[in-house]
Amino acid sequence: MELVAVAAVIVALAALVLAFVALRRGASAEPFDGVMREFAALKGEITAAFGHTHQRLQSITDKVAVIDSARANIEKLAEQVVDLNRVFGDKQARGAFGQRQMEDLVRDVLAEGMFEMQATLANGKRVDCLVKLPKPPGPIGVDAKFPLESFRAVQAAADDAARIRARKQLGQDVVKHVKDIAEKYIVRGETADWALMFVPSEAVYAEIHAHLSDAVEEAHRLRVGIVSPTTLMAALTTVRAVVQDAAMVERAEEIRTEVQRLKDDADRLVQRAGELETGFGRVVDTLRQVRISADKLAGRIARVAEADVPEKK
Questions:
Q1: Model-level pTM?
Q2: Binning pLDDT at 50, 70 and 90, where does residue 39 land?
Q3: Which among 88, 198, 183 has a CA at the least distance from the CA of 142?
Q4: DSSP-assigned beta bridge partners for residue 142
Q5: Mean pLDDT, residues 62-91
Q6: What is the pLDDT of residue 78?
Q7: Cα–chain-centroid distance for residue 240?
């Protein structure tokens, strides 16, 4: 709008200058009017041109604002990616990341009391999470650590040969980790006879199941289930249903026990009422016999009283 105003001022000043020159030369009004009409038309064209220019500049300004906003979002995303790479690059931070993700999933699905974080087993080993299932099968240990270094090597492989070597190493690391879980977190008589290895990345989970079938089979043999965030949530949902069913069965058993106790009490009450009735019957019969004896005795006394007894002389 400022550009349009400036253009209008310039055109007006030019028109005034020409008018002044024409008057000084004594020109007639008719040529002057023609000049003014031409300047008016020129002013309109300049105003329209500046208006279009202003619209284009405004459009460019809006697009620049959108680009600035997108750049800010990209910078923020880049910072988050750097932070995530820092987490994945540090073993301790990576372990905390996996532990936190696993904890969030468990707390979202299971109720308090159905699990224990950092539980210590009878063998002295501490498992990241112990899901409390009734026996059988018993509590299930969940490990939240994962061998990411070999997976990153697979991603960074420059050629097929390097990728094959990296996948072989990844498979060896997975098998070693599975064996550690089986030895530490499957305790006969205390836990279930299987455990879970949580992999906090769907990409790692897909890589293992797509290219490391030997490692997956070894995990199955050792009774260690490899789960991702999605499959862990499905497993926990199943666990919750099992626990709820077990609680309902236990509650139903308690109800059946109480009903049986009530039945036993009712049977005893009927028995004792019968015994009491029998006792009352004997008492009533005895009272009737006593009444008969009393009536006989009263009759005899009456007859004796009515008899004439001779007086002594």
A1: 0.53
A2: low
A3: 198
A4: 129, 196
A5: 65
A6: 60
A7: 12
Taking the C-alpha atoms of residue 20 and residue 171, their distance in angstroms, rounded to an integer, is: 95
Q: Are 18 and 35 in contact (CB under 8 A)?
A: yes
Structure tokens of 272?
Answer: 């004792």
Q: Which of 201, 174, 192, 181 is nearest to 127 (CA)?
A: 181
Q: CA-CA distance, 141 to 113, in Å (whole number)?
A: 15
pLDDT tens-digit series, residues 289-306: 888 888 788 778 877 777
- In Å, how far are 161, 175, 186, 309 from 171, measured between CA atoms? 15, 6, 22, 132
> Closest Cα to residue 145, out of 94, 203, 209?
94
Catalogue the long-range contacts made by 129-133 (C-beta closer than 8 Å, 24 or more residues apart): 129/102, 129/103, 130/191, 131/106, 131/236, 131/239, 132/243, 133/192, 133/239, 133/242, 133/243
> 102-244 maps to which CATH number?
3.40.1350
Mean pLDDT of the region 141-155: 83
Which of 1-15, 45-59, 135-149, 154-168 has the weakest average pLDDT?
Answer: 1-15
